[in-house]
Amino acid sequence: MPGLYAKLILPLKLKGSFTYCVPEELRDLIRPGMMALVPFGKNKLYTALVHEVHNETPQAYSPKQIISLSDKYPQVLPEQMDLWDWMSSYYMCSRGEIFKAAFPAGLRPESKSINDEPGREYKPRLEAYIKLKGKYMAEDALNIVFDKLNRAPKQKQSLEGLLFHAEEKEGLDSEIKMSVLLSDRLINKAALEALLKKDILEKIYKESSRFHDYEGLKLKSLKKLTRIQNQKLKEIKDSFKTHDTVLFHGVTSSGKTEIYTHLIKEEIKKGRQVLYLLPEIGLTSQIISKLRSYFGNMVGVYHSRFSDAERSEVWKTMLGQTGTDSYKIILGVRSSVFLPFKNLGLLIIDEEHENSYKQQDPAPRYHARDTSLYLAYLHKAKAILGTATPSLESYYNAERGKYALCELFERHGNMRQPTSILANTREAYKKKKMVSHYTPELYDAISETLEKKKQLILFQNRRGWSPYIQCKQCGWIPRCNNCDVNLTFHKYSNQLNCHYCGLSINMPKACPECGSTDIQTKGFGTEKIEEETHMVFPEARITRMDYDTTRTKRAYHRIISGFEAGKSDILIGTQMVSKGLDFENVKLVGVLNADNLLFFPDFRAYEKSFQMLTQVSGRAGRFLHDSKVIIQTSDPENEVLKWVINGDYKKMYRQQMEERKAFKYPPYYRLINISLKHKDPAILNKASAYLGDLLRNKNMPGIIVLGPEFPLISRIQLWHLKSFLIKVDRRQSFKNVKIFLKENIGKLESNREFRQLQIIPDVDPQ
Fold it and tell me: Do domains 227-413 and 419-462+527-658 have the same CATH topology?
């Protein structure tokens, strides 16, 4: 009998797949998509993915043998492996890196060495059920049991309680959850245990979901759409007849979500699944409440704050391996594109312009919006990109006819846009009219809002107390030992923190350079705003939402639901507060410092500033007339701020597109960033010069090589960095350019002098 072999993908940064021999006892069981435990290297064990099964004996080496299969069924579907193959090629990373990022760790247990037991294995959550033993189902037998229990009144009462619950359900042979029985005050836990010991009752364990059960929830009917919303719904459906993707450009508060719910309902009627992507975990709590009120248990949620076990359960539920119905709707963040969809019909990418959809570190450095469009192609599904501020690339694709375009410029219920005001901080400081961090315009507006018992949001895109501290005498500024950045002061912990490597040191009592105790904080972050707002408005109830206050699993939901319920008057936050949140009682939005958005050295700075400020402005007046947005700036004549005030997306788009074309940036050119990292700056300089020579001695028209240059932050976690920016004309084959880059990166990697060098390609950097 010829040998049977399997090509496996290991969860490592290694090129290609690895061939293993399939032992006799596994021949009839093994299939692509299964997990296999295999040895790798001298003494390591890994759970690998079976990519292909074949009969071709390797010629160059004798393959090792698969030890075991981790499950009876495939855990990865063919469409998923097709998606991973595309991602590996497009984003210049290995399949192993994608496998590690995509597949829940709980479903791929691995051990450090052959002598270790595999760890972190997924275990289903089991729930205890109690039922009457079969031999007592007959009335005569049951009467005898009750006679015997006359001297044990609590046991008799508990048995009667169980039988009552069983009859209420489906009859005497019903299995009742232990938790349900113990919630009945007439049933005693010790009495139940005694009945189990007497063999009158039996306990059964069943697999149970870790997630809240919405089975008993009374579902609402979908909201009736307005005339204009119905028109746009029809327009989108008509567009799907000719296009696979629709860009839905709708102003904030136009009711895009309600239109989505009607599209979702129609897909479910067709028996197909829906993926609803959001850029931030914080947004899921409001949207999930809405979707579950309409669709109940059909809605599943997936994001990085879930434990391994929770992510594994969602994955196995999607595969139909948990005994519960597979989710019809998945609501999640970017990693949701990796889930095993069997019959995907519609993808909704909400706030499609958001940078959060782009994975930065580690690989794969994918963009969830673009990846989801390829996922839609694999499933022959339709996709809708929704936003009030489209990315320039998406709007360009719509103008060219690649996407259909649907635009909605009317707020729901004819609600007026909030009045937007620019407040000049330079003038206010000059005339000494600032109250703490507030111009007179913003201070008066906050006071008025609080007097009227309305709520407000204050936006400051920096967390912590102060971006840095400085000695007033000698100018010393503490910097991170591992990274080329200033340390941020956090007053709550009285520590200086690095937001790149996590270094934390105590606040110095004196300057280490000159000994002075006159150390000042410079600038302000959300923590400082919170404390000083308490001082300026002592009666106000204040909540802060930033990375520091949302580290725990339930923190997002607690903060958002608390503000929604009116438990606080002022919500202070970073960009988390700008994205898609929907609060009925918000009358005012204040942007404390627009300048730190505008003057960032990035070709996308104006686009991102416009999007951020427009989005945060859209949190005001969603249900209230006479609402305001006040943007504080030292440069009120800035054109971006005028575009925001006038809501003029088209003007921003035209002006920015002219610049992009002139300076060869997306969407006219594609970008690939190549970062080189080494702990020795001399070796880094030598390697980057060598790669630069390779890339410039090219026979490839239509590409521009910029660099090597030190990035804005040139050392992170003791690694020195240099980078190249490759600009690729859209008329040039992007695939051929990546092949060319891989060949030259391979030459660099094969040089023994550069063994410790890390080379990181980033396709379509944001």
Answer: yes
Compute φ and ψ for 354, nearest 5 degrees.
-70, 135
**CB contact at 8 A, 411 and 624:** no
Q: Cα dihedral angle (283, 288, 294, 297), rounded to 10 degrees?
A: 160
Backbone angles phi, psi at 553, to 5 degrees: -60, -40
Residue 524: CB partners within 8 Å, gap ≥ 6? 437, 460, 462, 465, 466, 467, 532, 592, 593
Q: If you average pLDDT over residues 344-358, what whole number do you get?
A: 96
Per-residue pLDDT at 115 exceeds 60:
no
CA neighbours within 13 Å on the CB side: how many for 572? Answer: 26
Q: Name the token pair of 426.
A: 């330079």
What integer best gives the mean pLDDT of the chain? 90
Sign of torsion, CA 235 237 240 246? Answer: positive
CATH no. of 5-107 = 3.40.1440.60
DSSP 8-class letter at 111: B
Given this model, what pLDDT does residue 180 score? Answer: 86
Half-sphere exposure of 529 (CA within 13 A, CB side): 29
Q: Where in the chain are the domains?
A: 5-107, 126-207, 227-413, 419-462+527-658, 466-523, 669-763
685 compared with 109, residue with greater pLDDT:
685
b/e per residue 138-151 (b: at least 16 CB within 10 A): eeeebeebeeebee
Q: What is the mean pLDDT of residues 679-699?
A: 93
Element (H, E) at 130: strand 126-132
CA atoms within 13 A on the CB side of 172: 14
Burial 348-386 (b: 16+ CB within 10 A, else e): bbbbbbbebbbbeeebbbbbbbbbbbbbbeebebbbbbb
- Per CATH, is 419-462+527-658 categorized as 3.30.70.3340? no
DSSP assignment of 17-46: -EEEEPPGGGTTT--TT-EEEEEETTTEEE
pLDDT at position 254 is 85
Structure tokens at 511: 């300057």
Q: Is 654 strand, coil or helix? A: helix
Angstrom CA distances, 142 to 125, 137, 174, 197, 386, stand at 33, 7, 15, 17, 63
46-81: b or e for each residue (b if 16 or more CB lie within 10 Å)? bbbbbbeeeeeeeeeeebeebeebbbeebbbbeebb
Spatial CA neighbour of 693 closest among 709, 708, 714, 673: 708
pLDDT of residue 143: 84
**Bridge partners (DSSP) listed for residue 762:** 673
> pLDDT by residue (tens digit) across 537-550?
999 999 999 888 88
As a whole number of angstroms, the longest Cα–Cα distance in the chain is 97
Q: State both tokens at 319.
A: 């595969």
Nearest to 299 by CA among 179, 408, 214, 397: 214
Class of domain 227-413: alpha beta
Residue 182's identity, in one-letter code, is: L
CATH superfamily of 669-763: Ribosomal protein S10 (3.30.70.600)
- Compute the distance between CA of residue 95 and CA of residue 11 in angstroms, rounded to an integer: 8
Cα-based angle 78, 83, 85 (whole degrees, multiple of 5): 95
Residue 570 CB-density burial (10 A; 0-12 exposed, 13-18 middle, 19+ buried): buried
Give, for 102, the enclosing helix (H) or strand (E): helix 95-102
